[in-house]
């Protein structure tokens, strides 16, 4: 399997190369030359597999330059009950109204990001050892990618993590999870701005080819294809757990911001998973909802991005959306390059002529949620099912309930645990959310972080100084 860029300007590369590469040299995102097609008999054979067995079957189709025995060892070490809390890894819960919740947040940092990041840590370690290289990761987070990456990479030989986050905008729990880490290879940088400013800096540094090569800069955001492919696995597992036969179809409802999670659902559907619809749920930052309703993509600036009670989705420039648009436009890299030249110039684009395809050919629909919806959903679910969900998952459930068709099985992706967003849970339920074992006193630990303006040059200087020792 070789990989190309969404902007059409990259020579085909192997999985291990794009794992370390981050953005493609032409500024685009890596995608496989084609998606592997899963036959009905393969799907039947996969139904009874454990999570690790299934992950191996799927990832080996993409990571074809890693010897299978090595890959199997990496996957088996990653997806264990000890790390993810149960042998099932991603169990499902059926609500009284028939909606299914796919639990993705039982890993070390209580968000779905652990599902891919734990694998990424082990893949990096393996590939870097083989190549005799080291890697300096520059990442951006709105709250969950950062902690998942830092927990997955802390203490790993040959890896440093520099993580940008929006200053003062994450929850107290999210801040404490990241900033309390004292490991020598973890560096937290709070940026005076929003997540999009952090992601813009990551992309600016990735596009400085000389700096990137000199300091071996890599990425853990969903820019990195390995993140997306690891997320494909739980769509298959969620499908098997929510159905009793491969004759059935399900729809997935996905709380969305940077479009990485639902992009993995799109890939699973393209591979042949029987997915009826992919329901994109946004919060008040509704760039994606606007696109799937109108065909107009209108990324907003920081001044027009709201600070909400589902803060991890406070995103107005959905990085991974480029991967979907590449497919929507018949994999035309030249057209994607032209559209993203407009995006990079602060404009948007109009693909309303393709809107019907987005729905009928690719199964996408969307809806949005706001603070009042979130509170109402959290209260209603607590009352009806005794289930407390986090604010992002609540956005998904609100939208799933609004858009569900008669007879449709909708699987809602649980993207974080409520303990991460205690203020809003208290506002909704007048009590604290359950706090999993091991997190008591987290917010009282000493914190280590530097604060910078949203300036790529300042971040580069910090990376240089830190690595110079
Ligand atoms: C808790 C939570 N929910 C939803 C999302 C949105 O996911 P994505 O950015 O993959 O669309 C994020 C951030 O990525 C998140 O941390
Ligand atoms: N919500 C994310 C934002 C980054 O998304 P990614 O999937 O591209 O890493 C976060 O929690 O940081």
Structure explained in plain terms:
With 469 residues, the chain is an alpha/beta fold. It has two domains: 92-110 and 225-429, Rossmann fold (3-Layer(aba) Sandwich), CATH 3.40.50.1100; 134-215 and 437-468, 3-Layer(aba) Sandwich (Rossmann fold). It contains 20 helices and 15 strands. The chain has a six-stranded mixed β-sheet, sandwiched between helices. A five-stranded parallel β-sheet has the order 8-5-6-7-15, with helices on both faces. It has a two-stranded antiparallel sheet with strand order 1-2. Strand 9 (250-255), helix 12 and strand 10 (275-282) form a beta-alpha-beta unit. Helix 3 (51-62) crosses helix 11. The longest helix is centred in the N-terminal third of the chain and has 19 residues, at 113-131. The radius of gyration is 21 Å and the shape is globular. The structure holds pyridoxal-5'-phosphate and ligand LJ64HWYM.
């Amino acid at each position: 399997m070789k990989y190309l860029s969404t902007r059409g300007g990259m020579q085909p590369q192997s999985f291990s190369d794009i794992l370390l590469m981050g953005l493609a040299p032409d500024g685009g995102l890596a995608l496989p030359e084609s998606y592997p097609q899963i036959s009905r008999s393969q799907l039947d054979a996969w139904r009874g597999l454990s999570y690790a067995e299934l992950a191996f079957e799927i990832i080996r189709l993409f990571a074809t330059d890693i010897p299978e025995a090595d890959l199997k060892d990496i996957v088996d070490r990653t997806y264990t009950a000890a790390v993810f809390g149960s042998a099932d890894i991603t169990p499902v819960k059926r609500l009284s109204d028939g909606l299914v919740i796919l639990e993705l947040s039982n890993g070390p940092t209580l968000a779905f990001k652990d599902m891919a990041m734990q694998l990424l840590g082990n893949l990096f370690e393996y590939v870097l050892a083989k190549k005799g290289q080291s890697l300096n990761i520059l990442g951006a987070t709105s709250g969950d990618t950062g902690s998942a990456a830092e927990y997955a990479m802390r203490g790993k030989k040959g890896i440093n993590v520099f993580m940008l986050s929006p200053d003062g905008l994450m929850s107290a729990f999210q801040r404490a999870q990241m900033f309390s880490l004292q490991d020598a290879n973890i560096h937290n940088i709070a940026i005076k701005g929003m997540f999009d400013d952090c992601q813009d800096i990551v992309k600016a540094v990735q596009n400085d080819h000389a700096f990137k090569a000199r300091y071996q800069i890599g990425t853990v955001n969903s820019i990195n294809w390995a993140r997306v492919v690891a997320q494909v696995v739980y769509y298959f597992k969620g499908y098997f757990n929510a159905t009793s036969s491969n004759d059935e179809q399900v729809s997935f409802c996905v709380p969305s911001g940077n479009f990485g999670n639902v992009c993995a659902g799109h890939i699973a559907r393209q591979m042949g998973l029987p997915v009826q619809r992919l329901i994109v749920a946004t919060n008040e930052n509704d760039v994606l909802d606007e696109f799937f309703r109108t065909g107009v993509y209108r990324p907003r600036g920081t001044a027009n991005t709201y600070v909400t009670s589902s803060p991890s989705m406070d995103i107005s420039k959905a990085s991974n959306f480029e991967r979907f648009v590449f497919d929507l436009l018949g994999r035309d890299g030249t057209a994607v390059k032209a559209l993203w030249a407009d995006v990079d110039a602060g404009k948007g684009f109009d693909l309303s002529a393709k809107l019907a395809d987005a729905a009928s050919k690719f199964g996408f629909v969307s809806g949005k949620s706001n603070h009042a919806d979130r509170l109402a959903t959290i209260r209603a679910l607590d009352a009806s099912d005794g289930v407390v969900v986090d604010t992002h998952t609540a956005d998904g459930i609100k939208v799933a309930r609004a858009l569900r068709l008669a007879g449709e099985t909708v699987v809602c992706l649980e993207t974080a645990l409520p303990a991460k967003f205690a203020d809003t849970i208290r506002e909704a339920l007048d009590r604290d959310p359950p706090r999993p074992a091991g997190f008591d006193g987290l917010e009282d630990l000493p914190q280590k972080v530097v604060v910078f303006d949203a300036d790529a040059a300042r971040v580069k200087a910090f990376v240089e100084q830190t690595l110079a020792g």
